[in-house]
Design goal:
By secondary structure, this protein is an alpha/beta fold. The protein has eight helices and twelve strands. A six-stranded mixed sheet has the order 6-7-8-3-9-10, sandwiched between helices. Strands 2-1-4-5 form a four-stranded antiparallel sheet. The protein has a two-stranded antiparallel ribbon with strand order 11-12.
């Protein structure tokens, strides 16, 4: 699991974005990180991946302190998809192949190429393999960046708003794929997501951030009208349809 103990982070002299965060994120779950804009969701993901180094506290991955873990070993443990990705003049196949970098010693192997081909097929990107990423739409590029993360074959997958540039059909397809991967491969997926209805449909754990700390963390039972009102400041109704929760603003 990922264990966070007393984690705090601030940007320069600004007030703390995260203040004394402690939690245990269990193996094999799809975890939604939820909260208002500025609540520290993206900052938390970056601290878990050591993109940002916390001023206080520590992050332990399977008992190992990330502060002293070599970058190459961390890349084998955690794959990270940022909120925004910049397209370069690189072929899609090569862009996804970069996900194999932690495992490559001297040269790319046939196993590396096989994994890339499999991931491209999973995301319906095979026909794009020889196109340049600079020629892709925002949604297509987002899928390529996710494919690169999947090619890392890490135990933990951190996704910062992975569906923000996708149409409704592709949003559901991508989240369904991520959910399936989490279940079938016992992979921990941590997703920053704004759409509460997508979160309750595809995730099974929920971490609500408020006032620089964790308001609540748990399963579907914590997604209540009171929690949503306290965290987002809005009244909602929660309906049931075909065993799925639907959150409707009042």
């Amino acid at each position: 699991m990922i264990r966070v103990e007393g984690l705090s982070y601030s940007y320069g002299s600004s007030p703390k974005v995260l203040d004394n965060i402690s939690c245990q994120l269990e193996q094999g779950h799809c975890i939604a990180v939820l909260g208002n804009n500025g609540a520290g969701k993206s900052t938390l993901l970056k601290c878990l991946n050591r993109v940002l180094v916390p001023q206080e506290g520590e992050v332990l991955i399977d008992g190992d302190d990330t502060n002293i873990m070599p970058r190459r070993e961390m890349a084998k443990k955690i794959a990270y998809v940022p909120q925004r990705s910049i397209a370069s003049h690189t072929m899609v196949f090569d862009a996804v192949l970069l996900g194999r970098k932690p495992y490559i010693n001297w040269d790319v192997t046939e196993e590396d190429r096989r994994i890339v081909q499999r991931v491209l097929k999973q995301l319906n990107l095979s026909e794009y393999s020889t196109r340049y990423t600079s020629e892709l739409s925002g949604g297509e590029l987002q899928k390529v960046v996710l494919a690169r993360a999947l090619a890392q074959e890490s135990d933990y997958l951190l996704l910062d708003e992975p569906t923000s540039n996708l149409d409704p059909h592709n949003k559901h397809n991508m989240l369904r794929l991520i959910q399936d991967i989490s279940i079938e491969q016992n992979k921990t997926v941590i997703i920053v997501i704004h759409d509460l209805n997508l979160a309750v449909r595809y995730c099974d754990r929920f971490l609500f951030l408020k006032d620089s700390n964790i308001y609540r963390y748990g399963g579907c039972e914590i997604v209540t009208t009171q929690t949503i009102e306290d965290v987002y400041g809005m009244k909602v109704e929660i309906l049931e349809h075909r065993e799925n929760k639907i959150i409707v603003p009042c």
